[in-house]
Amino acid sequence: MNRNDIIPIGVLAQRTGLAVSAIRYYEDRGLIASVRTGGNQRRFLRSDIRRLGFVQIAQKLGLGLAEIERELAALPNGRTPNVLDWQRISRSLRKEIDARIQLLTRTRNKLDECIGCGCLSLDRCALYNKEDRAGAAGPGPRYVLD
Amino acid sequence: MNRNDIIPIGVLAQRTGLAVSAIRYYEDRGLIASVRTGGNQRRFLRSDIRRLGFVQIAQKLGLGLAEIERELAALPNGRTPNVLDWQRISRSLRKEIDARIQLLTRTRNKLDECIGCGCLSLDRCALYNKEDRAGAAGPGPRYVLD
DNA sequence: CGGCGCGATCAAGCTAGCTTGAGGTTGAGA
DNA sequence: TCTCAACCTCAAGCTAGCTTGATCGCGCCG
To answer: What are the CA-CA distances from residue A105 to residues A115, B40, B84 (Å)?
Structure first.
């Protein structure tokens, strides 16, 4: 159990709760790296558990893989985030969340006005303002709107 | 200009700001209905402008087309929402938004704890709790996780 | 009554984030 | 040494919400 700092994909999957296929996908995307055995099987570092942990948390906060990729790429020579990195990153995540909450709150206020007037008018309704397009970023692709 | 309560798809598109293709798609989905001319062209009611207005607003509030479909289907014989309907519906939308805000707020609080401890531990991290899966519903399909 | 702009119908494509399947290889334990 | 779970590589599929393209038909204006 000495050289167990190197693990196969199945173990990594178990430890992170991710599907094997998802991990392979992340590798394709460049979120994580592996070395290969003689027989072409992936071997990961134990620290990758943490790295994928970060990925999952960031995802839960609403970041897309592309953004997560960027955050990870910003780390010195692609290391897995340590405590200090994490604090820095999570502070920036906090800002993201704050922004989302604010947007939603503004939307809610407008909706309240709307309940009052019941207008539903496309021209006048406050909910219908361009600036808030993509407002509460719903499911599915939204880019077309922007 | 008397019987202009019946309009072709292009006009409806212009008045709602939607693409013609989107409107056809909505019709396929059953969100809106049309009659056909002798030459098989769609004709819509002027009131459908309002109906699609509702669709767009609801979408901005983060509802998927399926949910919107349900709301619309709940109206007596598929009429377009009038002021009273709208007030009822928007109150229910408000609840949705409130829930989202709460979820995000809880997530933010947990993140704050995390900034303090910097643990990033998958077992212990508060951000990693099953109950909050799909937490801040990010982009892309999430159903697989649930 | 001729032209061309608007409309119609498929099928396929695109984004995000993966999963599933087919078909074949590796490698650790009995 | 043999076995079989675990691994490999593509390619294709799925959800959501549309768009794009190809190839047509309709209909209004002059």
So the answer is: 15, 45, 24
